[in-house]
Structure prediction request, 898 residues.
Amino acid sequence: MESQQYQELLEKIKSRQPLDTEMLDEVMHPADIVSVLDEDDITDEDLKWFFSANNKEFLADVLEDADDELQSRVVHQLKYADIIKIFSYMPKDEIADILGDLPIGQRKELLNMMKLSDSRELRVLLGYRDDTAGGLMTTEYIAMYQDLTISQALAKIREIAPKTEIIGTIFVLNRKRQLVGWADLRDILSTDPDQTIEDIMDPHVITVDPLMDQEEVAQVVRKYDLTALPVVNRRHSLLGIITADDIMDVMVDEQTEDILHMGGVSGQEEIGGPIIVSLKRRLPWLIINLATAFIAASAISMFSSVISQVVALSSIMTIVSGMGGNAGSQTLSVAIRGLTLGEINLKDDWKLVFKEVLLGLLDGAAIGLITGVIVSIRYGNAYLGVVTLLAMIGNLIIAGIAGYLIPLIIEKTGQDPALSSSIFLTTATDTCGFFIFLGLAQIFLPLLK
Amino acid sequence: MESQQYQELLEKIKSRQPLDTEMLDEVMHPADIVSVLDEDDITDEDLKWFFSANNKEFLADVLEDADDELQSRVVHQLKYADIIKIFSYMPKDEIADILGDLPIGQRKELLNMMKLSDSRELRVLLGYRDDTAGGLMTTEYIAMYQDLTISQALAKIREIAPKTEIIGTIFVLNRKRQLVGWADLRDILSTDPDQTIEDIMDPHVITVDPLMDQEEVAQVVRKYDLTALPVVNRRHSLLGIITADDIMDVMVDEQTEDILHMGGVSGQEEIGGPIIVSLKRRLPWLIINLATAFIAASAISMFSSVISQVVALSSIMTIVSGMGGNAGSQTLSVAIRGLTLGEINLKDDWKLVFKEVLLGLLDGAAIGLITGVIVSIRYGNAYLGVVTLLAMIGNLIIAGIAGYLIPLIIEKTGQDPALSSSIFLTTATDTCGFFIFLGLAQIFLPLLK
Prediction:
């Protein structure tokens, strides 16, 4: 994208200069035009003008590349007739996503204005949740009966091709319209025209149920390196297909969710989004964190007489608890990733906890030794160093166990382990860290003074 | 995948029963066969038998679906002649990946045993780092001169199609072999056979440089919803193409890296992997963390006389510092995600820090008020509550600033912001948390006793 074209388009929109969309289509990709429309100084009025004034086929390409927020702004600005015209150039799964975000009344009116065959397909797509296979699928694919000859098939492909999203894979149906196989366009192109589709099809198709969660769907697509994944119902009728580009969007959304969840933010939040959304997503988790912070702090309160006799303990204890949190986060991130990729589960792999115990022992010994030596020198008391070493080993073993088991147990209950495991982890490492260290200090108190 | 077939195959391999690979290919997907070969009880000897005894075309499909580790185990077990035969059925990018992991001597011997045209292509692919566009690209695509007629093009497609990874997109070259456009197979199929490719091609191709980092490549593919992305050199010669399935693998790898980096683990680590790898990946970061923990602890040491006079401070201070860390992680995760998706950068968006300051103020006021009230009641001293409130607001504002700016600044220096930002963050929130809280306590000491 050249930034000169970008600036020019922005100025033309602001000054309402007529656009030569054919020319624009030549020099800018729809995704780049979307970037212009996403600029802060593009108002709703600008969008209204842009989407009312121009060629509807061109606008369909642009609208398809826009994100949910921009799509809904546009749809709210346009007349229904214009929306219907733009929709006529868009794939059904995209239209269903836009309709799904509209108020129910508006959605119904738009559906009623469409061709009956279109609105029927859309009503089916709208029946599935966005984050399921049914919500992701599109109805633009090529399907053929198995008894067609290759030459009949080719004629049909020529006719349907412009309307499909996927051309490399042709889905094969029996006369009951059940999915019985798939054929590769490569084979169709290079086979004797008198053979039938059945002769060259591969009967082994990987399919998914429309209710499958999008994260699992992404795992299937990745495992089998698919460019199109068919969705079938229990009768094995083909309902639609899911394409690789939609799976990439799913992967990004799921990744965003995981990273935000691990940071203690629930749901979607963009860095530049409204402050009230950020507050809603973050404050509840901070309050939960606060409750756990009080638990850890009360472990300290239990030992206030020990601390008042050896004040140095108050600064060393934060090192022991903090290092437990750090080591636990390491285990936690490896475990959460293993869960997301489907590589571990509690039932088969609980024994791996022993590896984490051993790691905690080794890391704890190394870190504890360094800390112990520094503490001994700094406060001129070797016993204080030994207490620190022992507490560090103990807390890092607990960190390993907690960091490994917490996400596995949360996942077992059907929740997202990324969302709350770090809260449980730090509760464990802070509380145990303070308790072990100050407890040991109490036992050896006469030697520490 | 049916688990009966899975068990049967496992038993057949263990008992060295001859396999009917044609039959096996019918009932199991290569990715599922790989799952069997990945089982713990499959030894190197089993692999050697499996890959020596069977049909090489079938084995090529299986080897292609295996991960790096299994591929390298197989290659180490096989005779060179067998490897070369299997390679002859595999795409070049996969072969290059396998060769790239071999010791240099073995790699050279294998290259020398291949057909000259194959080894030449592979040497080019091997010249690029794995994590660049050049390392990801494959040379199996369809390219045609622009002056061919549609009927000539179709004949050529029929001939080349079986050897390519991508068929939907045909790349168009001029007679200097420079990439000048692309054509959609749909259009070729439905156009008058006497027209030329040039008539129907789209001259606007999005291309990347072979040295582009894989994370950027993935962003380009996602932004423009591409199924194939051409890689060109400075002369605009087509070097290869990158396909969507390889991009999905990149996305998963990058995501794993981000999550592990955020948890303080450098590089790749699997939960079930060897303990020595885990130790190497984790201990260095714990030692860096330890250094920062000492910085925070020394902030406490500065106020030991204050703590010895009001011991309650030693437990409350951990709440103030801990909540700063929690609030900072929230901002950090949103900022890191924004950076990964290319949505923010330091130059244009540094002003967003004011949003984080405001959020810190609001969150800090809410959390500080709750904490302050509880502290006032628990210790029977309202001034202690006020000091807690003020310190909490101060620390949460610092957390917001640090959580936002640290990853942006690290990214600006060309490093991965996920890797070290949480260390800098907790250093800031712990040190400042202790300092502000204990500093305020020192000022108001007469009122707190």
Observations:
- The mean pLDDT of chain B is 89.
- Chain B has three domains: 3-127, 143-249, 275-448.
